[in-house]
Known about the structure:
There is one protein chain. The protein is α+β, with helices and mostly antiparallel strands. The protein has eleven helices and nine strands. The radius of gyration is 19 Å and the shape is globular.
Amino acid sequence: MGVSVSEDRARRPRPPADPRLSQSLESGVALIERFTATRPALGIAELADMLDASRSTTHRYASTLVVLAYLEQDERRRYRLSSHAARVGMAAIDTIRLETPAALTVLEDLREQTGHTVSMGVLDGDRAIYTHRLFAHGQGQYETDLGLRVGAHVPLHCTALGKALLASLAEPEQHEILTRVTLKREGPNTIRTKKALARQLARVRADGLAVCDEEQAPGVRSIAAAITSPGRARPMAVSVTVPARHCTVKQMTAMFGPHVKAAAERI
């Protein structure tokens, strides 16, 4: 799928080292972040390239993380995240969920109203991360959901969830993120210029709804709204994912937009 946001961040020149921080710990965390749902197992050569580090240094970090039980190796000696690492990640997500105790009930209602998979996510650096994902099981829905579950990261520029989160930010913060992200093509209609993305975000802010029209992947449409209640630790949004063959963007917006907005207001 090309270079991901994580890989792009890893390859950019780093700022001068801060003597107050541990560079080894920073590198270890960066190594863990290279593993994704679409890239679950990686060899030392791949990891070294992503981290812009030597193979010997990368092997030392990976071996340490194996001893600490954050990584394990498969039968081909490639590295992958362990169940212990997954538990740590879920603990962080559970902490975020504590901010929205009504979310599960609201999302269940939204799934019932729309008949499609519903999700909730938060801004996590230059990406969004799912904190809730309630699957529907209609025709074509499984393929449209792309196998993404709670804890999965998705791009900001080509998903309704991501665009809703971006549009909810104050202009300086939004601009800062837009200068960092790479508009990698994911689907046939992925926005390719930051100027076009900024125009769309202005419309999202005005309308209160963001849409994805086969931008994340072929056959995938989605609609989302930001959760605007004050007091949240980070931006949050709610989305509905719909097989593209079920309806046009206009139909999706008319049928599901009011329900998505109402759900975001209830949370």
